Amino acid sequence: MSWAFLRDLLSGVNKYSTGIGRIWVAVVFMFRLLVYVAAAENIWKHEHDEFECNIKQPGCENVCFDHFFPVSHIRLWALQLIMVSTPSLLVVFHVAYRENREKHHNQKLYKNPGKIDGGLLCTYLISLILKTGLETVFLVLFYKLYNGFKIPHLVKCDIKPCPSTVDCYISKPTEKMIFLYFLVATSCLCIVLNLSELSYLIVKYSKKCYLKRHMKKQQ
């Protein structure tokens, strides 16, 4: 899978972000996207082939694997990366709309089309809320699908066509669990950064509005 589009998207959003937003972009790019491409993808590459059960009953191994891994960790992680980055497109599209509007009217309508104010502020806040919500949804999804954030060495399966309870072994469980913890930690860090940026912008522009009203009253 090519991640060039996601990389370009994050680079584009970085131009319109606050300081906290730039930290979020750095975390997603360095600690999630690069780690995924460089290491995590290879660890889960042959997870189905390396899943072994102590019986060779036809179909038993496939059914057990599907039961314990209904969705591949790595594919779910890739989907999470794409989904939490997509709301940033709202900001890019809004800035592009402002720039096209200025070209259409052939005059300067904004001091800076990329400045976070007015309608762009609302778009930016919505994108932060969506990113936070999606991060939370995926964390809950991971927890529900795999009964916690653990990868056991051994799982017991008694699903048909297995003739009895069989032992199935997961390859490299410790290594996979380390990456899973890393995934959870970076997701939590991104949630904290999004909430911090959301709070910062709300407080900043609330103070700005209050000062404007105060100045009008004095005048």
UniProtKB/TrEMBL annotation:
Q: Which UniProt keywords apply?
A: Cell junction, Cell membrane, Gap junction, Membrane, Transmembrane, Transmembrane helix
GO molecular function terms noted in the UniProt entry: gap junction channel activity
Ranges for domain Connexin N-terminal come to 42-75
What's one GO BP annotation on this UniProt entry? Answer: cell-cell signaling
Q: Does the keyword rRNA-binding apply?
A: no
Q: Does the keyword NADP apply?
A: no
Q: Where in the cell is it found?
A: Cell junction, Gap junction; Cell membrane
Q: Which InterPro entries match?
A: Connexin, Connexin_CCC, Connexin_CS, Connexin_N, Connexin_N_sf
Membrane topology field: Multi-pass membrane protein
**Pfam families of this UniProt entry?**
Connexin (PF00029)
- GO CC, alphabetical: connexin complex
Q: Where is the Connexin cysteine-rich domain?
A: 134-201
Q: Which family does it belong to?
A: Belongs to the connexin family.
Could you describe the subunit structure of this protein? A connexon is composed of a hexamer of connexins.
What job does the chain carry out?
One gap junction consists of a cluster of closely packed pairs of transmembrane channels, the connexons, through which materials of low MW diffuse from one cell to a neighboring cell.
Q: What is this protein called?
A: Gap junction protein
Q: Which organism is it from?
A: Drymodes brunneopygia
> Upper taxonomic classification of the species?
Eukaryota, Metazoa, Chordata, Craniata, Vertebrata
